[in-house]
Amino acid sequence: MRQLVLHVGSIKTGSTSAQTTFAASRERLAAHGVHYASISRNHGAVSRVIRATRRNGFPGEADLAGVRAQEASDFTLMERAAAEAATVKSGTYMFSSEALLTHSARNVALLKSIVDRLFPDFAVSVLVYIRHPLSYTISRGQNEIKLGTDTTALIEERGYDGELRVGVERYAEVFGRDAMIVRSYDAVIADGRSVQEDMLEAIGHPGAAEGLVIERSNESISMNAALVADIVNPALAERGIRVDANVRRAKKQLLSEIAGPRFAFSRAALDAVRGPCRTEAAWFAEAYGLALSEPKVVVREDIADKLMPADEIADHADRVLERISAVRQAVAKRKAKKARGRKPRREQKKEPDPSGNFFAKLIKRFRFSR
Where is this region: Disordered (predicted)? Predict the structure, then answer.
């Protein structure tokens, strides 16, 4: 039997680490029957192709003439993945993209149609990891500050609106409850195991984890870094700077280098989200038998004496903005150079035959070959 696994997140449950590990160990995993799609490390194309399909038609059927470049690339990647999966005679073919859990019910239904067309005769499983909604809310908050344009005040105001349960139930309704593999990230950590080990066991290949080199990535930023981002993120918006892949990469790296205590919510924000988070944790325990441990969280007011002073935060923000500007300028120069392209060499003109002709002798003498 052939199995197609869609690992859909959720965010901050070791997804990036698992993707990095599996991408670096494709041959080793394949020897154990786990085929991690080779189209990229993080299979964002699986998420993006949903909207591209809505606009242009299904992969393999859409006319790519006039299609946006990114969409055309995603269609090509998905067709390549389908061809790769077709060579798998048994075992598991796997995609991983934590963005998949955030899609609407309409998009999840379209994803199933795409999967059914491209990967016929595969039994589809949906793998998702859940952490306690309170720790998820805090971790998601710092992630959105680090990678996006949000501030601490905005993510605290947003709180928790039940997106974990909503996301899981959308997939259960479309793919069927039997297709769902819902795991507790908290239980994995409590057992001292890696998410990679647990994932391979969950999809039926525990032996594939033996000797696997675990990669760590996408670490959380400190509270000091978040305070710096509270200045940087609005400044980027005011300057009309879009947080594209280059800016995001630079900002993530720069913020990750700022040391300090762990990111924390204020006491008021924590009091506001505790109730909804506990209710949702209880639902997951009843619906899927998950043991989700409520975390012992730090309150921001309790670490105030360990945070950088305001002037130091401002200095860090200025340096981050300068570095981001430098990155954007370097990218712009590369793009301009690429657009110009290399000028084609002019063909070397043949020298006239210096056969006694006066002008020919002059040409030879001064070598007017161009």
Answer: 332-357
Query: Would residue 345 count as lying in a domain?
Result: yes
Of 147, 177, 209, at which residue does a domain stop?
A: 209
φ, ψ (nearest 5 deg) of residue 296: -90, 100
Residue 92: strand pairing partners? 3, 34
Q: Are residues 165 and 257 in the same domain?
A: no
The whole-model pTM stands at 0.85
User: What one-character DSSP code corresponds to residue 259?
Assistant: -
User: pLDDT, tens digit, for every residue of 203-226?
Assistant: 999 999 998 998 877 688 999 999
Contact (CB, 8 A) for 29 and 204: no
Domain that holds residue 185: 2-132+160-209
**Is 290 domain-assigned?**
no
CB of 178 within 8 A of CB of 123? Answer: no
Contact between 163 and 8 (Cβ < 8 Å) = no
156 burial via Cβ count (<10 Å: 0-12, 13-18, 19+): buried
* Same structural domain, 200 and 326: no
Contacts of 163 (CB under 8 A, 6+ apart): 102
Residue 189 reports pLDDT greater than 60 = yes
Residue 145 maps to a domain? no
Asked if the model's pLDDT at residue 348 lies above 80, the reply is no
Under the banding of pLDDT at 50, 70 and 90, the label for residue 343 is low
pLDDT for the residue numbered 346: 54
- Render 57-101 in DSSP notation, one character per residue: -STTTS--TT--HHHHHHHHHHHHHHHHHHT--SEEEEEE-GGGG
Residue keyed to tokens 């928790």: 160
**CATH code (residue 117):** 3.40.50
